[in-house]
Specification:
Order of helices and strands: HEHEHEHEHEEHEHEHHHHHH
Number of strands: 8
Shape: globular
Number of domains: 2
CATH superfamily of the largest domain: NAD(P)-binding Rossmann-like Domain
Helix content: 40-55%
Strand content: 5-15%
CATH class of the largest domain: Alpha Beta
Structural class: alpha/beta
CATH topology of the largest domain: Rossmann fold
Radius of gyration: 20 Å
Length: about 280
């Protein structure tokens, strides 16, 4: 997702330097969008007013921020670091403290909208951090977002993303059951979706995944490996705050079954395949 997001920054007139651990991807981005690439996170961040991360998980966030060759080695006081990774609230607060220690602002800013949202520049961005840092960063984030909201102190963006993933998990499972039922009942899926999407059952998942679910097409979209990572973060945080997530825990088990079958790179909508077995 970082590839098109960085492209929108370049298209908005910003001078962009990119880093990717797969160097050919960074070189491909430069060939398409201009700008420059660097061989380390620190190299990409040197001289930048804003630095944006979009990586995999807590260890990746630490590696590219506070680790050897991380961006905080070269970021100057008064600049702002924005993390678009879906990670834990703990790592957000950890990096916030490390950034503040060297005079750098930090905003945890996980995103929702999928690959299509990144490519079309219409992501939803959930932020945590200090108001002044958020207000500065939001002006730049506008290049690839349609909504960018400060939810509270550091870690609040990640907590909001957990709410998002908890909600999505239940919706996808419900949609999977509904579509499977419709197929078995002999209904026309397109007509069903066109009808109920205009009512209370309507959702992004229904509009974008119902047809492909019915056709058993899952080789695209948000990999369920990443969803399992996200749900694990949600369940850990739920234990901490005393929240009960029975549906989320059940859906997590379903994704675990798909992973065990070797389908970790399938889209999250693949839940329906378990019903089709």
């Amino acid at each position: 997702m970082g590839y098109p997001m960085a492209g929108h920054l370049a298209a908005a007139g910003h001078e962009v330097t990119v880093y990717n651990r797969t160097e050919t991807k960074a070189e491909g981005w430069v060939a398409q969008h201009g700008g420059a690439s660097a061989s380390t996170p620190a190299g990409a961040a040197k001289g930048a007013d804003f630095v944006f991360l979009c990586v995999g998980d807590d260890p990746d966030v630490r590696a590219v921020t506070t680790g050897h060759g991380g961006v905080l080695e070269t970021m100057s006081a008064g600049t702002v670091l924005v993390d678009h990774t879906t990670a834990s609230a703990d790592v957000a607060r950890e990096v916030y403290a490390a950034a503040k220690a060297v005079g750098v602002g930090f905003v945890d800013a996980p995103i929702s909208g999928g690959q299509a949202g990144a490519e079309n520049g219409v992501l939803t961005v959930m932020c945590g951090g200090d108001t002044a840092d958020f207000e500065r960063a939001a002006l730049v984030i506008d290049a690839y977002s349609r909504a960018c909201t400060l939810l509270g102190d550091s870690g609040s963006g990640q907590l909001c993303k957990m709410v998002n993933q908890i909600s999505v998990a239940g919706v996808v499972q419900g949609l999977a059951e509904g579509i499977d039922f419709a197929v078995r009942a002999g209904l026309d899926i397109e007509k069903v979706v066109d009808t109920i999407s205009k009512g209370a059952a309507g959702s992004w998942q229904m509009e974008n995944r119902a047809t492909s679910m019915a056709a058993a097409e899952f080789d695209f979209g948000f990999a369920l490996d990443w969803m399992r990572k996200d749900l694990g973060i949600c369940l850990t945080e739920a234990d901490r705050v005393g929240a009960s997530l029975p549906v989320t825990a059940l859906v997590d088990q379903f994704y675990a079954r798909l992973q065990s079958q070797g389908h970790g790179r399938w889209d999250t909508s693949a839940l329906i395949s378990l019903l089709q077995e």
